[in-house]
Design brief:
Family: Belongs to the FAD-binding oxidoreductase/transferase type 4 family.
Protein name: FAD-binding oxidoreductase
Shape: globular
GO molecular function: catalytic activity; FAD binding
Helix content: 25-40%
Keywords: FAD, Flavoprotein
Oligomer: single chain
CATH topology of the domain at 96-214: Uridine Diphospho-n-acetylenolpyruvylglucosamine Reductase, domain 3
Number of strands: 19
Cofactor: FAD
Number of helices: 17
Largest sheet: 8 strands, antiparallel
């Protein structure tokens, strides 16, 4: 493999081929659950360099692990322990190539940080609506490879719905320029959708053309306390009826995850959580005026209170207050980190089934593990819950994980299946859910997926051991 490393140095430049020193940032996953060993970390600066690197690896039979910001939660972008895999970091391919204001599109390189894309659009008076907690470090390529969701899916859809075209380096090192800005193109199979959500197992996304929207004239945020999860679902339906397309965010948060934020980040003032089992965060984006948006919001909340769906609520008075409320929601994962290791589930079920799913699954877990603590929060507007399980008070988190992870995950996933849901809503499969997919995906679907993998990556060099077993 020494000759391969020399080739890689020739392609990307010796300073951009890392073989020794501290490679933790590339070899360890974000949750610190897995640490691998790379043959080399290569940091190309262009699509042409990516193609040359893939060709060299294919000729040498070396497998490739594409990597963006390495913020994934399913151990899908770090190398295994063999020391034979090349980590292909896209962080240097980070340009905003173009913005077409009339076509409402922007073309970004895969290593572009999500927040940088948002800011570039805003400078042009436009909105790029993909938004998630890791937006300061995750990249567009990673967002597309996992079909990321985030907080505004209820209005704008997942990363797939926001993408019009992609540029891809295939497993053979060829470049496919599919960077179409077209909203209509009925010329056969939609190859774009093959690569979005494939987690780097079919090829390397090197750039993408994404949809933009006009900036709303006003965007208001409200925080409401709701007595039950059923009330939260009823409030969502009411918000759809009264706000229509203006409803751009609808998040639900259980009392315990909000307790964690209040405990570990006391500088954040968490409203209303002590008096209610659940709180809901709503966002209303208006194209008319702030007064119109506020009147809509206040009418919605009055109706919700009259119906007993909301016990109390606050509406942010300015942008700073709105950001503080959203920051509380986005701090839940970090508060969990402070509390200790936990068992994470990124699941989706039909919105109408969420209250019963929670009732049944909460009871099953409580029976299985006395005093277990449930960190239940997420994107209620699109049926996606982060249904996480924390050790009982006083129990060592690492020991809890070792003893209960398989049992708890099996219980939760079986319940998800019973309610017609999915075991991965937005985080992907990676290696963490690889074996579980066999039990929760149709054999026919798995067969078609394997046929696509064999056709596009016959050497099984692209991120092997992720998403699919051979």
């Amino acid at each position: 493999m020494n000759s391969l490393i020399e080739q890689l140095k020739t392609i990307a430049g010796a300073p951009n081929v890392l073989v020794d020193g501290d490679l933790t940032a590339y070899e360890q996953d974000w949750r610190k659950r897995s640490r691998g060993k790379a043959l080399a970390v290569v940091r190309p600066a262009s699509t042409t360099e990516v193609a040359a690197i893939v060709k060299a690896c294919a000729a040498a039979g070396a497998s490739i692990v594409p990597q963006g910001g390495n913020t994934g939660l399913v151990v899908g972008s770090t190398p295994d322990e063999s020391g034979s895999q090349v980590v292909l970091s896209l962080q240097r391919t980070n340009a905003v190539r173009s913005i077409d204001a009339h076509n409402l599109t922007m073309t970004l390189e895969a290593g572009c940080i999500l927040q940088a894309a948002q800011e570039a659009a805003e400078r042009e008076g436009l909105l790029f609506p993909l938004s998630l907690a890791a937006e300061g470090s995750c990249t567009i390529g990673g967002n597309l490879s996992t079909n990321a969701g985030g907080t505004q899916v209820v209005r704008y859809g997942n990363a797939r719905e926001l993408c019009l075209g992609v540029e891809v380096v295939t497993a053979q090192g060829e470049i496919w320029n599919g960077l179409s800005g077209l909203r209509k193109d009925n010329t056969g199979y939609d190859l774009r959708d093959l690569f979005i959500g494939s987690e780097g197992t079919l090829g390397v996304i090197t750039a993408a053309t994404m949809k933009l929207y006009p900036l709303p004239v006003a965007s208001l945020t409200a925080w409401a306390a709701v007595p039950t999860m059923q009330d939260a679902v009823e409030l969502l339906a009411l918000a759809h009826r009264h706000l229509g397309a203006g409803l751009t965010g609808f998040e639900v948060m259980g009392q315990f995850p909000l307790q964690l934020v209040a405990r570990h980040f006391p500088q954040q003032r968490v409203p209303l959580y002590e008096q209610s089992p659940y709180c809901v965060l709503l966002e209303n984006s208006d194209s008319e005026s702030e007064d119109h948006a506020r009147a809509q919001f206040e009418r919605l909340l009055e109706l919700a209170m009259d119906k007993g769906l909301v016990s109390d609520a606050v509406v942010a008075e300015n942008i700073a207050q709105a950001r503080q409320l959203w920051h509380i929601r986005e701090s839940i994962p970090m508060a969990q980190v402070e509390e200790g290791l936990n068992i994470k589930h990124d699941i989706s079920v039909p919105v109408s089934a969420i209250p019963k799913f929670c009732e049944v699954t909460d009871a099953l877990l409580a029976r299985e593990i006395p005093n277990v603590r449930l960190v239940n929060f997420g994107h209620l507007g699109d049926g996606n819950l982060h249904y996480n399980v924390q050790a009982p008070p006083g129990v060592d988190p690492a020991a809890f994980l070792r003893e209960y992870e398989h049992r708890v995950t099996t219980l939760v996933y079986d319940s998800v299946r019973n309610f017609g849901g999915s075991i991965s809503a937005e985080h992907g499969v990676g290696s963490l859910k690889l074996d579980k997919l066999e039990d929760h995906k149709s054999p026919v679907a798995l067969g078609m997926m394997r046929a696509i993998k064999r056709a596009l990556d016959p050497q099984n060099l692209m991120n092997p051991g992720r998403v699919l077993n051979p």
